[in-house]
Amino acid sequence: MPDPVLNETQKSALRQAVVDAGQVILDVREKGNQHTIKGDGSPVTEADTRAEAILLKALRDVAPNIVVVAEEAAEAGHVPAAPDIFFLVDPLDGTKEFIRGGTDFTVNIGLIVKNRPVYGLIYTPERGRMHEGEVGEGAWVCAWECRREKPFSCAEKEPITVRRADPQNLMAVASKSHLVQETSDWLNAHQVKETVSAGSSLKFCLVAEGLADVYPRHGPTMEWDTAAGHAILSAAGGRVENLDGEAFDYGKYDQQRPYLNPGFIAYGDTP
Hints:
Layout: H1 8-31, E1 35-37, E2 43-45, H2 46-62, E3 67-70, H3 71-75, E4 85-93, H4 95-99, E5 106-113, E6 116-124, E7 129-134, E8 138-143, E9 158-160, E10 171-175, H5 181-189, E11 194-198, H6 202-208, E12 214-217, H7 223-235, E13 239-242, E14 264-267
Parallel strand pairs: 3-4, 10-11
Antiparallel strand pairs: 1-2, 4-5, 5-6, 6-7, 7-8, 8-9, 12-14, 13-14
Helix pairs in contact: 1-2, 6-7
């Protein structure tokens, strides 16, 4: 196993950054979260832009030589090409959920090395939960309310791992806001017995924690939507594949819409 790209000091700073971003997101919600519509038809709020500024500063401070591809910066026209190592940042994954007053929105940082996600960090501000994973080192979750005054410190990390699936009794997790007919057809074709709904990258986390077996996604996503969750799931023993069963890679810059993902299936320990 090669040496980690990030050391513990750098990871600690990023954990604090996602907690700080979560605090800002909740502050914006308290005062009223007005939103506008971006060119792709998706909403954006003050929480998105302020949280992204916190994450970008932290990444510049801890890893100034690593390129960052961030959602709001990319929408504004700053779309760097993907080198061998780069970060993908979604400052508020699940903006629709955030706007309508739900709890399934997250702050995401993923690290890509040679087209594969190797490290992921997901913080859920409203629930006070942090998921983290590094391929080859494992994945964990801990509880931390971002409104605590002291710096982030999680002494009680709970390791997480995928569960062995029963092919005759599969549980799937699907999108709250983006369930399309193709996904419904896939669920029926694979005789999924139960489907639960979740927003944002928490779908990956449910599979990583062994609370679901599979997450099919046929609708469009961007690489910053999936990188952190994909890394955490991989670290927990799962996998993500294209709809044709091929590897689900990152760094898709040279295409009509840079960093747009194809459909995929995220698996736990599923044959």
